[in-house]
Amino acid sequence: MSVKHKDLSFSLPKYSRYELREMILQTEKPVLSSEDEVIYNQLIGRTLLKDKHYQLASKILGIPKNEILQRENETAKEKIFYRSNNQAFDDEIHSIINLFRCFSEQKKLRGLSHE
């Protein structure tokens, strides 16, 4: 009997809102128009980011907007190596990957991904 493997692919944002905020705060603030000043204050605040925020972040950081919006993919299950001769069960692998996802998300949310 063959076992179908679930698709366990998962991606995280390349830059979390927290990471963008911190990167912007560490960059010298450019001279901004009054409209961009409002967007800047929202960007470094707790606003849900929209296209205008990403455009300004791109301008300030010198990073293309499409790069800021990229997602990073997790390693596929087939590329995970084990030291055991026994094959791990899909449920065990799935649980481990979910744990890693939670850990990765928490690190990104707290801005700890580039330490």
How would you describe this protein?
- The chain has 115 residues and is mainly α.
- It has one domain (11-109).
- It is 47% helix and 5% strand.
- The chain contains 5 helices and 2 strands.
- It has helices at 17-25, 34-43, 51-61, 65-68, 90-109, and strands spanning 11-13, 71-73.
- Strands 1-2 form a two-stranded antiparallel ribbon.
- Helix 2 (34-43) crosses helix 3.
- The longest helix has 20 residues, at 90-109.
Please supply descriptive tags for the structure shown above.
115 residues, elongated, single chain, mainly alpha, 5 helices, 47% helix, disordered N terminus, 5% strand, two-stranded antiparallel sheet
Task: Give the secondary structure arrangement, pairings included.
Elements: E1 11-13, H1 17-25, H2 34-43, H3 51-61, H4 65-68, E2 71-73, H5 90-109
Antiparallel strand pairs: 1-2
- Number of folding domains? 1
Coarse morphology: elongated
| N- and C-termini, Cα separation | 46 Å
Q: Tell me about the largest β-sheet.
A: 2 strands, antiparallel
Q: Give me the Rg, rounded.
A: 19 Å
Structural class: mainly alpha
**Number of DSSP strands?**
2
Proportion of residues in β-strands: 5-15%
Question: Could you report the average pLDDT, rounded to the nearest whole number?
Answer: 77
- Helix-residue proportion: 40-55%
The arrangement of helices and strands along the chain is EHHHHEH
Unreliable residue stretches = 1-5, 81-85
User: How large is the count of helical segments?
Assistant: 5
